[in-house]
Every structure is written in C-alpha cells, then in structure tokens.
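User: I'm curious what two different proteins look like when written out as structure tokens. Can you demonstrate?

Assistant: Sure. I'll show them one after the other, since each token string lines up with its own sequence. Here's the first protein:
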Amino acid sequence: MLNNLTDCEDGDGGANPGDGNPKESSPFINSTDTEKGKEYDGKNMALFEEEMDTSPMVSSLLSGLANYTNLPQGSREHEEAENNEGGRRKPVQAPRMGTFMGVYLPCLQNIFGVILFLRLTWVVGIAGIMESFCMVFICCSCTMLTAISMSAIATNGVVPAGGSYYMISRSLGPEFGGAVGLCFYLGTTFAGAMYILGTIEILLAYLFPAMAIFKAEDASGEAAALLNNMRVYGTCVLTCMATVVFVGVKYVNKFALVFLGCVILSILAIYAGVIKSAFDPPNFPICLLGNRTLSRHGFNVCAKLAWEGNETVTTELWGLFCSSRFLNATCDEYFTRNNVTEIQGIPGAASGLIKENLWSSYLTKGVIVERSGMTSVGLADGTPIDMDHPYVFSDMTSYFTLLVGIYFPSVTGIMAGSNRSGDLRDLACRLLPVSHGSSPKTEIVELEGAPSPEFPPWDR
C-alpha cells in the first residue's frame, strides 16, 4: 500500500530524522536517539521552528527582537554596497526571517497607523456600531481574499525579492505587472502624504496646540488655519524625510525596535483606556446650547450668567450671541429660548452610550452637530443660522461608501509582509509515496544517505 511521507525541510535542505521504533519521550516521531532528544529539551518543537533550532524559545525571541529591522534585504544590501564601494563586498547571507519577525510585526506596524488612531472613532460615531462592524467585515474580507490569492501564487512557484509586485507581474504578465507597479507607487506616495498630515494633526490638535503658526479668529476659520499649518509643517516634515532618504535609511532603522515598542504600547493603552473610562471616566466637558454642540473657541465658562461678588454678570458666551455684554442686550432667538448645559464627552462604556450609537447618523455639509436624545426649543422653518456663532458644523457630507474608502487603507498593511518575500526563510513541505507493505499508517522515515529526489521549482 502507498502511504504519505511528510518531509519538511527549510532552506538549508535538512530533513527530520527518524527510524521505525516509536518512543513517546522523544521529541521526534519514531526516534530512539536519547541524546538527540535531550538536545531539544526546552526548545520550541512547533511545525514552523522559526529561528529556534538551536536556541531556547525566550532567548531566541529576545535576540530576534533586538535584531528587528524595518528594511528589506535588498535595501540593506544596497546600503552595504554603497558603504563598501571600492572595497571587498560582504557575501550575501541567506534570508533567515520567520513568520513572526518577517511578516507579523511589519504588518502590525502598518495596520495600526494614523487611520486607526485618528479616524476610526469618527467613523464609528458617524456610521454607528452595526454599520461599522459591517464595514470592517467587508474590508477584512477583501484582505482575506488577497491573502488567499497571494498564498496560492506563492505556493506554485519560487518567489524571490519583490513581493506582491513580483508575483502579479510573473503570473499575469508584464502588462498587468507594470500597471500594478504604477498603482503601488502612487499608493505609497499618497500613503506617505496621509501619514505626514496625520502626524501634524496629532501634534497641533492634541500634543502642542501652541505650536500653531496660523490661528483662527473665530470658529468658522479653524479649518482654514489648520490647513495652512499643515502646509507649513508638512513641508518641513517632507524635507526631513527626503534628507533621511538621501543620507541613508539605515540610521532610522536603528530605531526600528523603538518604533515597534511605541506601536505595542499604543495598543495596550487603548485597552487600558477602555477599562479605566468604564469605571472612572476622564473629565472632558462639552458645552451644549439646547441640543446643539458649541465650540470652545472664544469662551471658557459654559454658562450664560455668572456670579461675581454679590451681583450677576454676563459671560463671554453671552457676548457671542448677544449685541453687548449687558443684561438688556438683544440676543439670538435660539440662545434666548434654550438653556446651556455641560455634559461629559467621554462618559465611559457603563453609561449606556453603546446602545445610543448602534445605528448611523449621517450628516450633510454645513449642518450643526446635535446631541441625540436631548430636547430643545426650535425655530421656525426657514430661519437662517448665523455661521459666526460658535457652533460645531459638519465639514463634509458623509455616507457609507465614503467611510469605507476612508477606513480601507488601514487594512492594506498585509503588503508590508508580502514585500519581505526576499527576507523570509524557505520552508518547504512535500509529500512522497512510500511502499510499506500492508500497514496503513503514515510514518516519517530517515532519508540520510539516500539521494533526495528532484522537484520542480513550483513544488519546493
């Protein structure tokens, strides 16, 4: 009877030894070599051993993290060739990166990017929780189909450096390869611009607002001021990045482990923030006039009147909606009919906020952002809204397909793993027919001393 023989070997061509005598205490199937078994005590005996052939699991993992690099092998060889020009070049080392260091961590760094930290919360707030789950499912389905197709192409041939571009160009022809390569180039260019703008937005809106060069005099000019600040600081950041590329990215690569630590720390901070806000919400007050959200530009106290000494005085908010700071001034009709309240912007998961945000609340451009569930005294139909008042307006018209387009770039991080195809270990598993009499069991036999059969490149 013919039985299946599984022979898994890495790029070095080694085979798993064995003989016909089973032994449960041995880490190898059908092996009686006690010394060989003791050599692998405490080691990782998984199917994919990564870099843990001769080192313990913990020490090998720490060593791999210490030597973690963001550069693919081609970039490193190019840097070394430029530094050793005119001298003796170093021999090219065989790629030895495994699944964790070569695929998982690079993809993790690209997936957890500016869209996740800046736009995902806005997408959920507009589309609601149910449609956000549907959106994530659609995007992840596209990623899964891409990964499956990539695996199908990679297992049918030898894939050297070049990643997805190499596989597409060799599978579909140079015409499709050139078109896809152009799309990759444009996509990488626009992604760089997106990350630069995201960096500046975090810097000016959350970390150091005082660094803004252009400041808005009223709420209507905040968008234009932010755009001008992005132009100035974006040019500076782009110049620094061009200088780094000109000097050599190997200097930035020395901080690859630091960047990886920042990403992992950010992920942990998200879960820690959710747990903390559920029991102890942070103090992030939002001022409302009726059910309309107010921008904190031009006033500090969320009230119409305040007490100073023994008398009642008007606040800065009064002066924004009325003709003067006096009590007998003429004020806006909506301001006169509705009260000013202050709510917490981050009430926590235990406040019932999840139930209120199950469904979508799409907005059109120029509409005032209102708090659902709160009553207010409205105005007559056709009453114009003064755009100079400190309301929070929707700056764009939102709909489902637009939100999918905004979120989709965050799931394209798998390309960072496919582009490292030249750095990964070559681990091949093949099935061989073996005649073993009438015994129906499948076994692994030792191939030492026997010539290995030749396989075509697509079967290695």
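Here's a second, unrelated protein for contrast:
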Amino acid sequence: MGRTHRQLLKDSFMVELVEGARKLRHVFLFTDLFLCAKLKKQIGGKSQQYDCKWYIPLTDLSFQMVDESEAVPNIPLVPDEELDAMKIKISQIKNDIQREKSYTFLISSDYERAEWRENIREQQKKCFKSFSLTSVELQMLTNSCVKLQTVHNIPLTINKEDLYCTLEVDSFGYFVNKAKTRVYRDTTEPNWNEEFEIELEGSQTLRILCYEKCYNKTKLTKEDGESTDRIMGKGQIQVEVKLSVKFTSREFSLKRMPSRKQTGVFGVKIAIVTKRERSKVPYIVRQCVEEIERRGMEEVGIYRVSGVATDIQALKAAFDVNVSVMMSEMDVNAIAGTLKLYFRELPEPLFTDELYPNFAEGIALSDPVAKESCMLNLLLSLPEPNLVTFLFLLDHLKRVAERESVNKMSLHNLATVFGPTLLRPSEKDSKIPANPTQPITMTDSWSLEVMSQVQVLLYFLQLETIPTPDSKRQSILFSTEV
C-alpha cells in the first residue's frame, strides 16, 4: 500500500514504560505504521503540538507479552575453554539487538489490549514491505496528528492513583504531622469530606500534603534507606481563628462525664464493664489493641496522628450498642483514636481519683529506691480490673515503641499521648481550687500537672519488669494472652 494513501485507523492515550518510568503517550495506528507521540505543553497560547518519540512500520512490528520478556532464560554452564567463543557470540547478539528496539505499554484493560492486537494484525495482512520515513515526512506526519486525532481527552483511568492527605501544624515553629485522611483508591478526584480534631497550641501555619500510596514494588527510597510514598502536591496556609469566646472553667471543659447509658462501654466504670463481659480486660481495649498490632505497628505517628472524627464516633457508637465491627475495614488511626477516647471518657481515670495525688507525689521523689517502692506499691493498689487493663496496655505500648525507627513513636511520645488520658483526675480531685483567691497561671497549674502525668506513665514504660504478687500474677498473665 502506498504511503500516499495512509489513513488513521485508531488512536489512544497509553502509558509507556521507559527505563522504569511511566510516560504518558498518544499512539496512532495508521494503515502502514504505528506512531508514538508525546503531547507538548502549550505555552503562551500556542496551538497543540506533538513530538514524535518513535514509529514502526507494521511489517516490522511484533507482539511480546511482558511476562515473556521478563522470563529468566535457562543459561547452561560453559567450560572455561569456550569463553572466547561465547564472547564472540555475545558481540554478535548485541549487534542484532541494536537493530531491534522493544517498547512496553501498560494497558490495564484486557479488552483494550486484545482490540489493539487484533486491529494491528488485521492491518498487517495488507502490508508487505518495510520502509523508512525521511525527517521531513516524519515531521509532516506528526503535525497531521493534531487534526487527525479522534481522542482528545486523557481518560481518567490512565492516571488513577491511590491518594491520601496529611495535615501538619507547627507548635512554636516545629512542624508535626497531626492527621491523615483515608486512602482513596483508583481515582483522580478524591472527595474526603473528613473532620479532624487538632490541637493548635502555639500554631501559626497549617500544611497540607497529598501523597500517592506506593506499594512494595514502586516505593521510593530515602537516603537513609527508608521507604516512602510519593508527594503529589503540597501547600500551606496561615492559621487564622475567628471565633466568639465563652469562658468555661477547666473543671468543666475537661470533666469526665459518666454515661447515662449504663449498658454501653464509654463513660461506664471499667469494673462494671469487665464484670458484665466476664473478662479481665474490656472487649473494646482488646479489639483495638489486636487490630493495631496486626497492621498499625509501622504506621508513622500511631496514637499521635488524629483519626477521622466521624470514623471514631462510628466506632464508639458500635461498641456502645455491642454491634460487631469490621475492624479490618477501618482506618488504623481511627481505631487508635477510639482507644484513646475510651480511656479519656472513663468516669474515673484508670489510675483512680483516690490514688492520683499519691502517684503525683511518688514521681517527684528524688531517691530512686524510695521512688520505685512507692510507685510499685501504688500501682499494685489499683483495683484488679484497672491494674490488669493497664498492664495489658503497657505491654502493647512497649511493643509499639520497639518499632520506633519506623513509626517514630518513642516511649516518651507515647507517654505524652497517654499520660493525661490515663491519669487526668475527675473534677472533684483536680488540684486547682474551684474559686482561687490568687491568679493561677498556666505554668503553675495546667503545664505542671500534665508534665507530672506524663512522667508517671513514662516511669512505668521504662521499667523492664513489674513484679506482682502471686495472687494477681495469674490475672495479669491471662490478660496478656487474651
């Protein structure tokens, strides 16, 4: 068939694999050749243009599946005396390879792949002679593609990715990752519509980063050897808060509120829940810990990064009415947030209102021997459900910290997150008087009290072993094996 009768039969956008990188191409099937072009960026209102990457006459085109090209050849052992002959053969093969060039396209649709193959093979039956285009002919053909093209829009399936976003805020100039959205799979138009509760103490800037989720085969590698996901976009805004203010004293804003529904688990005393469930450790604690240990131990910022607020409330409602929850389908940060919320909403802290002042005094002791004796005696004075649950949680947090090199959660970071959650007293046991006669500064009250709560938990996290009486040892062993 003469080249003067060349007609366009089919065109489409495809992804070409070039030296391991994915490149978007526009391919054109003509009656006598296959042309691969790149769409140039439009600058300054210029008309659309193509840049020809390569072309192949249909008589020279053949198909090879990726699996076949990646197959490892069976190479026989060669005696040393035959190496020189083999080198000559390798040189000849190398020359033969240079005459041929293979190209790889990634086509996810089996239907589309089969259709292209059928169209090309059908047209090959009408082609009998190879040829080469001059540079002028190639330029004219490439320019004609702008008018001849039938596909004008890049299909969304070409660049569908698994996307998620993270939120970073600064605390007095130091930026920390505070929240992470769900991963939206196979889409270019994610619609997260998610809510987060983020502390903004000393914060002035909010950063938003959008990532493409990279899996084992495609993960990028940092210089220090860690794997990471690919940043697709980023931006930041200044934090501006516009609000009307109504003062609520700390006694009420941080008050532990008992639940009105004694059939639930949130806001219900831990002794009531364990007695009702006939368990040593509340079911909600075991479920959350087991799921986090199954797939969240290497999640960066686990327990520090906020989960989606709506997901946490959904989990809370499900546990409260004893509805079976598909934990494997929930975001791991939401599960971690649910566990923290459970302890935060206990009507009495896990360390109890009665013993809280003693823990605060014990951690302040300067004599290490006296401190250890005091702290262990106080711990073993906790009610059995509280003690067994705490030791179950303590073992879990230590295992989380063992993965610090990956999840960035040290013992101190975990103590900072869980200390106030496990120790913050109820309103009646707050150290701040209800009607102070002298002004109480933030440093004198809130900060020092939080620091004390963090130090108490950190002390127990740093202990290698916690000796327990034989009467309680069996319960503790049972709880860790649940």
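A detail about the second structure: The first strand starts at residue 8 and ends at 18.
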